[in-house]
């Protein structure tokens, strides 16, 4: 397969090497950088370097966009008019769902299959073995191509933009956990308690992640007021240790919001306890209006 790569930074270079190893041809690279290092990289692929999309795109079977997310829609709009209708456009960027859908709409006008491709992890750790999640009219073709290159990939039902939305939802969890880990372990290290902390966190290792986070949601509605007091004590401990509670400040605001919601609901029903079905769906339905911007 002849492939054109638009954007040849860390992501583009990683996958270009995987595609070459699988026997495919990198026919061309489109890149704003035109310096000697980029020229040498592109030459190592046996490809031609271009500064802008153009008629040369009509000679390839697959166009992969690996630019910055904010530029993805504009790049797609520039490139898609040059593609053949039997070619495939795969957007590997972290563009917003709205931009991804706008690019897919342009692809539809030109009759070109379009795939929203989300890289579900850090390629610095797994390289081209990082799982891909894809949606859109070209999703099945991307999965077939990726798996033939020994790259794990999965298509989901739905429209372009759904894959990147799932990636960003995952980022709320992973980046939130990363931030909590940094704040917590810095404090534990400073207090000389990091190894002991690992011991008392052992119960978390024994619970599947989805079960664990569902249990948080179900119990949050019941115990937010009591847990708010504990969050404030934990925050005070960080301050006493001379540390900034950046993450805990946000945690405190969230627990305070839920606590206010519980108090308002109880006041509206004459002080009676808040009663909700003990399901994740029911408790998320109650929490969602609290989270919506007023």
Automatic annotation (TrEMBL):
Pfam families from the UniProt entry: DUF1932, NAD_binding_2
Molecular function terms from GO: NADP binding
Species the sequence originates in: Bordetella genomosp. 4
UniProt cross-references to InterPro entries, sorted A to Z: 6-PGluconate_DH-like_C_sf, 6PGD_dom2, 6PGDH_NADP-bd, NAD(P)-bd_dom_sf, Pgluconate_DH_NAD-bd_C
Taxonomic classification: Bacteria, Pseudomonadati, Pseudomonadota, Betaproteobacteria, Burkholderiales
Domain 6-phosphogluconate dehydrogenase NADP-binding: 2-126
Signal peptide feature range: none
Start and end residues of each Phosphogluconate dehydrogenase NAD-binding putative C-terminal domain: 188-257
Protein name: 6-phosphogluconate dehydrogenase
């Amino acid at each position: 397969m002849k492939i054109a790569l638009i954007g040849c930074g860390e992501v583009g270079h990683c996958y270009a090497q995987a595609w070459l190893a699988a026997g495919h041809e990198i026919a061309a690279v489109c890149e704003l950088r035109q310096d000697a290092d980029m020229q040498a990289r592109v030459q190592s692929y046996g490809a031609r370097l271009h500064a802008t999309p153009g008629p040369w795109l009509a000679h390839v079977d697959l166009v992969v966009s690996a630019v910055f997310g904010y530029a993805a829609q504009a790049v797609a709009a520039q490139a898609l008019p040059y593609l053949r209708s039997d070619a495939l456009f795969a957007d590997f960027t972290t563009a917003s769902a709205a931009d991804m859908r706008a690019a897919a709409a342009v692809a539809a006008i030109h009759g070109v299959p379009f795939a929203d491709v989300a890289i579900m992890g850090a390629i610095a750790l797994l390289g081209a073995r990082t799982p891909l999640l894809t949606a859109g009219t070209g999703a099945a073709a991307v999965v077939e191509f990726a798996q033939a290159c020994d790259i794990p990939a999965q298509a989901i039902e739905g429209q372009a933009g759904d894959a990147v939305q799932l990636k960003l939802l995952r980022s709320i969890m992973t980046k939130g956990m990363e931030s909590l880990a940094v704040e917590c372990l810095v404090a534990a290290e400073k207090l000389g308690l990091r190894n002991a902390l690992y011991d008392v966190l052992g119960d978390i290792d024994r619970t599947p992640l989805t079960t664990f986070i569902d249990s948080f949601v179900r119990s949050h509605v019941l115990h937010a007021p009591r847990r708010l007091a504990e969050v404030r004590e934990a925050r005070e401990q960080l301050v006493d240790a001379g540390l900034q509670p950046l993450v805990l400040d946000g945690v405190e605001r969230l627990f305070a919001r839920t606590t206010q919601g519980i108090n308002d609901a109880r006041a509206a029903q004459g002080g009676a306890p808040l009663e909700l079905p003990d399901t994740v769906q029911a408790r998320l339905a109650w929490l969602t209006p609290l989270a919506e911007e007023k």
